[in-house]
Amino acid sequence: xxxxxxxxxxxxxxxxxxxxxxxxxxxxxxxxxxxxxxxxxxxxxxxxxxxxxxxxxxxxxxxxxxxxxxxxxxxxxxxxxxxxxxxxxxxxxxxxxxxxxxxxxxxxxxxxxxxxxxxxxxxxxxxxxxxxxxxxxxxxxxxxxxxxxxxxxxxxxxxxxxxxxxxxxxxxxxxxxxxxxxxxxxxxxxxxxxxxxxxxxxxxxxxxxxxxxxxxxxxxxxxxxxxxxxxxxxxxxxxxxxxxxxxxxxxxxxxxxxxxxxxxxxxxxxxxxxxxxxxxxxxxxxxxxxxxxxxxxxxxxxxxxxxxxxxxxxxxxxxxxxxxxxxxxxxxxxxxxxxxxxxxxxxxxxxxxxxxxxxxxxxxxxxxxxxxxxxxxxxxxxxxxxxxxxxxxxxxxxxxxxxxxxxxxxxxxxxxxxxxxxxxxxxxxxxxxxxxxxxxxxxxxxxxxxxxxxxxxxxxxxxxxxxxxxxxxxxxxxxxxxxxxxxxxxxxxxxxxxxxxxxxxxxxxxxxxxxxxxxxxxxxxxxxxxxxxxxxxxxxxxxxxxxxxxxxxxxxxxxxxxxxxxxxxxxxxxxxxxxxxxxxxxxxxxxxxxxxxxxxxxxxxxxxxxxxxxxxxxxxxxxxxxxxxxxxxxxxxxxxxxxxxxxxxxxx
Length: 652
Fold this sequence. Notes:
The protein starts with a helix and ends with a strand. 3% of the residues lie in helices and 53% in strands. The radius of gyration is 61 Å and the shape is elongated. Strands 17, 20, 21, 24, 25, 27, 29, 30, 32, 33 and 34 form an eleven-stranded mixed beta sheet that branches. Strands 42, 44, 45, 47, 48 and 49 form a six-stranded mixed beta sheet that branches. By secondary structure, the protein is mostly beta strands.
């Protein structure tokens, strides 16, 4: 019966290893002390050499005194033997015994029939032969040699033969021969488990983790040996080392200690809670299981960071701020660190920061954000470094105007001036002598001119086809002249479209003044633009106006006609910029005592117009003057103007 139980234990452990290899998930219980059973089957009757070891050394040990001796012939198909070599000393003897490792207690002993032989003369000659354990013995006699009984619980078990009387007659031979013994032990201690390495994921319980390469290796040890190890990560079972065929000839029936080397990549798991269970099973049946679970959290979401704020600001606006806003996964944003102009990074806790920037010049802000999830190297995830450029410059003022210089105003005046005394040469009596002439007043006529008057204005009237000069000055806010700076002069046809383009450029003098000549063109809006410098803000002048009268030309054919006759009037608006829908032209006719309108028509996009006019019936002869006028329209960039007058003679 006991042999069948031992075989059943081995089958159970083999089935456990097979189940671990094939099951998708294993329900792992927490550390639990069970009354697991171990069977130790020794010597040739169980196919054992009797020389097995456990964590304490040899499973079976022997001792003897006097002329007694022990022999282990289990490996040769024999037995554990105790022999008497002619000893008659009281108390002298020999024994074989085994001590179970700590945590295992022996509770049953069994020797099959026919596997225990004892010398039939032993008792008669004063010897005692028995099994022994803590708190009990059982005498071995030829009539009752086997044992099949519960014992202890005891930490050890053995069998012995010794001289129990004052004088024993030497038997000179074998006293005891046991070739099969099976012990049943109760193992109530689960394996001890410990995570390997300070960087083990096991020690991140309650924390956020990220990335791969996380060690989850652990070591297990047990007196009965570690027969199976598993890890369970987020419900997924990872099978570790196992021994499906425990050694039933040793108390330590599987290897110990055993290390399961494992690492996981958290990117293969969803963000959020992640459970890690470590478990080990010993050789007992049912197995004692040690298992523990730690919960940590996964966050592999990249950290992002966005910067915003002004890119250009005047120094008068005070301290500027660049806003930094970070976002992260479930671990949250730990903080933001920013550097201004290459200086040391300053930390800002939380998901947003306001970074102050001040001082004239161009500034650069660099920021990076981190979350609360750490990798195996204890490094939090960080965002890409974001940069923001900001210029703080002194405000500037640029002006533009047209300058008019008046002519010289001169007039003649009569003035009385004093002539100081001075020596003069005179010839006296034929000799040249020097005489001193006394000072005196003298009346003279002089021409005096006043300095020309210079005036500025914001509207300049210029004939079509003529150039004009625009000028101005560029100053800092405090009135300091900004010399050697480029100025762009922008113009836009005064047709409401606001389409500015560069017409000229200039460079300021040391006093900040500038001037430029504009080419001919239509009526225009003029602005001066300063693009700014490293420490100076850009600025644009108020617009000024160039007013250009329209240029209309007409031709009449014929110049002489009769009453009721028809003439052809044609003409052209010069300078271009005629709207696509045309430009209104008003035709007028005049005579000696007045004038009137005779028609409205539109010049085409090429500026040309043409029409006919028929005179009424009349008498006598009359001379008429005809001309064309343009109208004031918002989409035509010319001021209203009239053409020259053309004479037509009408008669009978």
